[in-house]
Design brief:
The chain has 13 helices and 13 strands. The protein is an alpha/beta fold and 344 residues long.
């Protein structure tokens, strides 16, 4: 399952794009999409691609094209790994055919993108507005346009900001085509609300076996999209995590700042997780519990953990208490326990 995000820097700013792509790739982004609105942006797209390859970073770059088919042709010429178009807004059939022929010559996949704001007028009139059925019909129609030109290296994307509509549309379309699907909730919203909508929509589709690439669309920095996409995949068991951190929701027995402690532990585990991934080591489960009485027992399945008390914490391993430490030493002591025990 591949994670995708979209660069939001000026498409003419080569250095800014390079910096953003490197940052997202380092976090685990598998595919990056860039808008190509004009000739200058297409040239920059090509330079960025070459610069990344010279650094040994071969991350697939998708050119996002709207209206002007010439930009699709230029992006393919500049080395795009995939192009995203909506055949309906490219223009005439001959313009679409030019793009398809260029993609065929270079063996470049085409992502057919449809969303609730781009539905054809006849589909809107037939369904009385935007509907799941209309999204699926539009997606299939635009796939067929290119299929009828003898090209089938296609990916389809049908998105709405309505979670249920997006889900229903994918369920309908998945019965009508075997093409790979890029899934997500478009215009999902701000960091908090967008995460919830994306988890609900993307998670439901992936659990139904629908989806080959995903994007969490947030009004936030693209790095947040990548981070949260990873969390969705980890929660569904579709991407392995070197460190699985669990923490209790707290209750009246909690005598420690568990929220702050959990966040500190999460940060402290980042270099450990990186080491485990680099060395190909088995993953670990770490628990942060709020109750010294029940914590170790409730989290006995964790490899390591801490249970908070009144100004102190109990370190434990596999449910067995190892040491009692003051509150201000908990995180350091827990990291030392893990590193020493694992020989890191």
């Amino acid at each position: 399952m591949a994670i995708q995000t979209m660069a939001n820097r000026d498409p003419h700013d080569e250095l800014a794009l390079l910096s953003q792509i490197r940052e997202n790739a380092l976090l685990g982004c598998d595919i990056i999409r860039l808008t190509v609105p004009d000739h200058e942006a297409a040239v920059v797209f090509g330079r960025v691609k070459k610069d990344l390859l010279s650094e040994g970073l071969d991350i697939p770059m998708v050119a996002d094209i709207h209206f002007d088919h010439k930009m699709a042709l230029e992006a393919i010429e500049q080395g795009a790994d995939k192009i995203r178009i909506n055949p309906g807004n490219i223009g005439s059939t001959e313009k679409v055919r030019e793009v398809v022929n260029a993609a065929r010559d270079r063996q470049v996949p085409i992502r057919v993108g449809v969303n609730s704001g781009s539905l054809e007028k006849d589909i809107l009139e037939k369904n009385g507005g935007v509907t799941a059925e209309g999204l699926a019909e539009s997606g299939l129609r635009n796939l067929r346009i290119i299929e009828d030109m003898g090209y089938d290296d296609l990916v389809v994307s049908i998105k709405s900001s309505d979670v249920k509509m997006t889900y229903d549309a994918h369920m309908i379309l998945s019965r009508m085509t075997d093409h790979p699907m890029h899934v997500g909730i478009t215009e999902a919203g701000t960091l908090r609300g967008g995460q919830v909508k994306s988890a609900a929509g993307i998670g439901a589709l992936l659990l139904n076996g629908i989806g080959d690439t995903i994007r969490v669309s947030l009004t936030a920095d693209p790095t947040e999209e990548v981070r949260y996409a990873q969390e969705i995949l980890k929660a569904l068991g579709l991407r392995k995590s070197a460190v699985d951190l669990v923490s209790c929701p707290t209750c009246g027995r909690t005598k420690i700042d568990l929220q702050g402690l959990a966040q500190e532990v999460e940060r402290g585990l980042e270099p450990i997780e990186k080491r485990l991934q680099e060395e190909g080591r088995p993953g670990i489960k770490v628990a942060v519990m709020g109750c010294a009485v029940n914590g170790p027992g409730e989290a006995r399945e964790a490899d390591y953990g801490v249970a908070g008390g009144n100004g102190e914490g109990l370190l434990f391993k596999k449910g067995i208490i190892i040491e009692k430490v003051p509150e201000d030493r908990i995180v350091d002591a827990l990291m030392k326990l893990i590193e020493t025990d694992m020989g890191l």
